[in-house]
Amino acid sequence: CKPINISLIAVYAPTNPPKGQKANIDESDTFYINLQDTVDKVPKGDMLTIVGGFNARVGKQDSQEPGNVIGPHTVDSTNENGKRLIDFCNINNLIVANTFFQHKPIHQASWMHPGKKVWHMLDYTLVNRKFRSIVEDVRVHRTAAGTIGMDHHLLWAKVKIHLRSRRKKQHAQPIRLDSKKLRDEKVVDAFQKDIKKMQEEMANDTMTVDEKYVNFVKCIKRLGQEHFQQEQNNHRKQKEWLTDEILDIVNKKAKAFLDWQNNRGTRTEQKHRDKYRMLRKLVKTKVDARQTEYWDE
């Protein structure tokens, strides 16, 4: 799988003029034209995040539907810049992430009007609609703004990115030999006969010493695999250190647990519980000892 790239765009949009003054349409148009040009250059597979001061106010949409750009949690009514912002989001399939998380008004509004002393939400985090689920929270932190002397409060977004793992190349599994087969006299006898036959064939060969060595190593590996290779197990792979004794105790422990649960509230509950705890402790002791033994081999 290809990794997901994140494209982050920081913006600062023109402000709305005071009431009674003519809006500077050219300035606002230029901002959104330039922003659209930048967005068009972002690869379609990227997670697009646009953050900053849009100087726009957005209110609740008429009806709350899954395809809405604006969520249910707003503090303003929509102004002209807000309409431009909503249109831009609709064109680019973006959402205003702030408005989908419920917080106290002081944690939603990011700027206070200096004259009216009214708080507004002017700063936003926009993300692709398809990546909406990875945004876990968006809110305002007021302390940071006081530290650096800004009139806009810090907007904080918590994003949880699910990283795609690259598929590892499939390597050929090493051939494992079953040492238990060394106890089988028939298998060992057949292996020795093949070794003797190989030696006779090499004795009459005109190969150099180095060539004979290379051929000898190949033959030993091949014969070892033919006679001592582990049987393929199509069932769940068992840990190499897991012995039959441990498996037997594990099964007894499982049965003891069921007996304890089936006798809860009876006179024999204590007896079954003690048996289960004893077997549980025994399993842990056996596993720890076997793991130590296995790694020391």
TrEMBL record:
<protein>
    <recommendedName>
        <fullName>Craniofacial development protein 2-like</fullName>
    </recommendedName>
</protein>
<dbReference type="InterPro" id="IPR027124">
    <property type="entry name" value="Swc5/CFDP1/2"/>
</dbReference>
<dbReference type="InterPro" id="IPR036691">
    <property type="entry name" value="Endo/exonu/phosph_ase_sf"/>
</dbReference>
